[in-house]
Structures are given as structure tokens and as C-alpha cells.
Amino acid sequence: MRTELQAKFIQFINNRKQSEKGFTLVELLVVIIIIGILAAVALPNFLNQNAKAKQSEAKQNVSAINRVQTSLRTEKTAFTSTFDVLAIGALAGNSDTASTVNYTYTLTGTIDTATVIAQSKDTSLKSYTGGNFRYTNTASQSTVVSAVCETLQPGTDTAVVPTFAEAAGVATTTCGTAFTQLGT
């Protein structure tokens, strides 16, 4: 009797499985809701990473410009104010401005200071500034100090270049009030 009951149960399960193919509406809605929740959580993170990737372009270019300006100043008597002298990849031209998809770069150079502004074209991106300052240190040697600054908030507000001060042979750099200093 027992084996007969088991056989009928197995037959019942097999018959039920064959007739229950497909998804119910509730199962489908649960899957759609789960996918929607995952998308709602992941999308802001993805957009933030996209902005960070675009901003890294400006950070790298401003840092590269600072390094090249420092090198040029050790070889020449003044910083440059044209991009063709710098010879940095995507930034070229015989003028003081250059442009990429996301940023407009403006360069100035004098005997003792050089500045670069990476102004964002998109309100979701931060702007960057950089600068170099040549001064004479306590050992009476010509020295160059650099700074890279980042806006605290994204936007297309006009960027402010860092300021430099020198007292008793020691130089200090300061970013604007809406900026944070990233490095030298």
C-alpha cells in the first residue's frame, strides 16, 4: 500500500509540473520590482563615477601643466603663456586657451607666476585651477612652488587661481574660499 501511495504522489507531482509551465503575474512583478530597486540604487553611483572619470581629465592636465611649467622655469627666465610651448597631448595651440570636450583651459605666465584654469563646461563637473610661483628661498636659491585646487561644488562658476605668498624665504599657497587644495 505504501509503494502504491508513493507512486501516486510522484505521478501527481509530475502531472502538476507539466501543467504549471511559465511564470505567474505576481512572480513577474516581483522580478521587475527587484530590478527597479537595483537600478535605483546603482544609477546614482554610476553617474557619480562618470563625473569622477571626466574630472580626472582636468586634474591630470592641470598637474601636468604645473610640472611642465616648473621644468620650463628652471631652463628659461619666465613661465610660458601658450600651450604650444608646453606640448601636452590634447592641449595644443599657439594661444593661452585650449579646449577639450569637458573643459576649457586658460593659461597665464609671467616671470614669477604661472596659472592655469580648467573651467568645466558641464554643471555636473568640478572646475580646477593650478599655479606655480617662483621665489628666492632662505639659501638664496630660486625655488618654484606649485598648487592644484578643486572647487568644492560642481558647476560652471568662474574658477579662481591659487594665491602665493612669500615671507622670509618661505612660500605658502592658498586656494580660493570655494576651493580645496589637492596637492602641489
UniProtKB/TrEMBL annotation:
The entry's keywords: Membrane, Methylation, Transmembrane, Transmembrane helix
Transmembrane segments: 25-47
Transmembrane helix recorded as keyword: yes
InterPro entries found in the cross-reference section: N_methyl_site (IPR012902), Pilin-like (IPR045584), Pilin_GH (IPR031975)
Membrane topology value: Single-pass membrane protein
Subcellular location: Membrane
Superkingdom of origin organism: Bacteria
Record-linked Pfam families: N_methyl, Pilin_GH
GO-annotated cellular components: membrane
Name of this protein: Prepilin-type cleavage/methylation domain-containing protein
Source organism of this protein record: Chamaesiphon polymorphus CCALA 037
